[in-house]
Amino acid sequence: MSELDLTLGGEEFRMTRENTSLFTFLGESAMYNHIFFQKERLDGNRIAGTYLFRPNPNFTKLRAFMEEHHYPMHINLLQPAQCDLDAFNAHYFKDLNDISYIPDEWEEPM
Questions:
Q1: What would the mean pLDDT of 27-34 be, rounded to a whole number?
Q2: Which pLDDT band, with edges at 50, 70 and 90, does 93 fall under?
Q3: Average of pLDDT values for 9-38?
């Protein structure tokens, strides 16, 4: 069986070859390796979905499943797309994006 039932963001999702792809990058960009889960197709050929990035503990298991079941893979890409960078930064730097105050003791003396 090449399908897998998951819970993504509290919602049930059936992972199939038609809605899930693996993306890997070379060199330092490998930190952006991810699995993309397509949730819906929007107007103008746009796609809505969610990401599972490499730091997630489930990434390795899901990647192995995808490789074993011949899922679509975009391997050894040179650099991630801007939407991938934006998703990574929004997820991993969310707290930093919301900072409105920096304590005086954190500021570097000039």
A1: 95
A2: confident
A3: 94
Cα(first)–Cα(last) distance of the chain, in Å? 62
pTM of the predicted model as reported, rounded to 2 decimal places: 0.80
Other beta carbons within 10 angstroms of residue 74's beta carbon come to 11
C-alpha distances in Å from residue 9, one per residue of 27, 43, 44, 69, 70: 30, 23, 25, 24, 25
Residues whose CB is less than 8 angstroms from the CB of residue 39 and which lie 6 or more positions away in sequence, other chains included: 13, 19, 48, 49, 50
For residue 16, what are the CA distances in angstroms to 39, 72, 77, 83? 11, 10, 22, 22
**Residue located via tokens 């960078």:** 85
Residue-level pLDDT at 27: 95
Cβ pair 16, 65 in contact under 8 A = no
> What span, in angstroms and rounded, lies between the C-alpha atoms of 102 and 30?
31
